[in-house]
Amino acid sequence: MTRTVPVRGVTAYPRRERRHWADAQVARLTARLIRRGVSWLALALAGYLVIEVLTYERTYPDMASRMKLVTLSDDPAMRMLQGVPHAVETSGGFVVWDAGWILAAIVGIWAMLVAGRLLRGEEESGRAELVLVAPVRPARVVLVQLAVLAGAVAVLGAAVAVPLAVLGTGVAGSVLFGLGLAGLAATFAAVAAVIAQLLQVRRRVTAASSAVFGVLFLLRMAADSAGSRGWLRWFTPFGWLEELHPYRDPSRPALAVSLTVPVVLGGVALALRTRRDTGGALITEADHARARLRLLGGPVAFAWRGTRGMLAGWLLGIAGYAFVMGALTATVLDFAADNPGYQRLRESLGWDAADLARGFVGFMGTLMGLLIALYTCWRIGAARAEEAAGRLDHVLVRPVTRRRWLGGHVLLTLASAVLLALASAVAMWAGAAMTDAGIGPADTLAANLNPLPVAALAMGLAVLLFGGAPRLTVPASVAATVTCYLIEMIGPALNWPDPILNLSPFHHLANVPAEPFAAPAAAVMVLVAVLLGIGGFVLFERRDLTGD
What does pTM read for this prediction? Predict the structure, then answer.
């Protein structure tokens, strides 16, 4: 005869309560995975908008100088880059026009990458199977994850709306702009969620999502290239944000579309999730291709094989942006000639009024330097990703030292930075040549090579973080680089003290080609970069390998 013995410490929950408990645990895990990125991004967005508003009010103090901004809408290149100006005589309208497209790109890319990581990366690593051990269905997990992502983009929208409202741009307009950005980010997250159900590998999900992002951005540029093509804005999230007009004559249909489409796409992603197995995909390819053994003979070649796609993407992006800025040179010069506020801004930045064209090229070269510096941070982050995925363990069991492996990544980062600078110089010269701006290839080459010491410094910091605090390799180095750039861009205009300005390496760059190259400052930055890199190598050799 047998009898049932109750197990102490185990509570039997009803099925509904167990499901709610599982949903809460999935939501908690998802929030934990993305909370750091959301916090850093929200702080960065809020800080950037505060600086944008203060700089606008100082640069354009009267209505006459503000109304001249409307004339920029006559230039097709300016419209294609930033959109059609709307209510730019107000601080809120100017922020939407001048910074809206940048903020949209940032939050859109972030949401897209995070959604791919959660909905495909977790399955690829095998961690999703551990979550599904709980009493929760796969589609339910996707629903909870999308809900947490919706909350995250709402936080980002609030991080945009609150500082704008506090600075007096208008509460209603600030809230609408925050909602518009949140809707755009949610749309790209939903796009990535749908693609994550179709493709099996996270890398392909990221590539496909990035392609959709690029096509939609180009569609917005085509819509703004001529008034007759304005109807194309309704087919891209960037166009919805532009049509929103939060600070004058707001468009309710644009807001409704930007908030409805991500819900519909999220529903599609949920429906597709029920039609596939965990770890599988709806689009599969028969693997009949031969094994590709090229570039597997050493750690440097393998690092190049794994990141050449990322380099190609950065190369196209930086070259395209440099080309547009080169094409805008003549327009900016005409606008600056009769604008007192812009003249004061030039003086605060140290531009030579007698050589305004080369001063502008030097300024744009510094901006390209920021982008190249950010690339070096992400490129060292690729080394961290290789370690986090566990692939580094298989490399180091062979006769490969840690120093040789990390040195290969550093060498490739330096070579890639030079390649990006050269591509940017050629593209900027080509754009300026189209508008007869009087800028030669030697000028753009000097302007784009000038900030490479700052890129080396950013890389050195990333290597140091990789050796000492590997999980902070990308976020901390990127945050430090962007902060230093903002100090240089807005500090002089707001009369910040010299001790603060001197903290930024960008402040020590000469405005080449309008000014001679600052060799002593460049030498110091390179030396500091070398010391930071050496410190990173030493720390890396003395610590354990850590996973994701």
Answer: 0.80
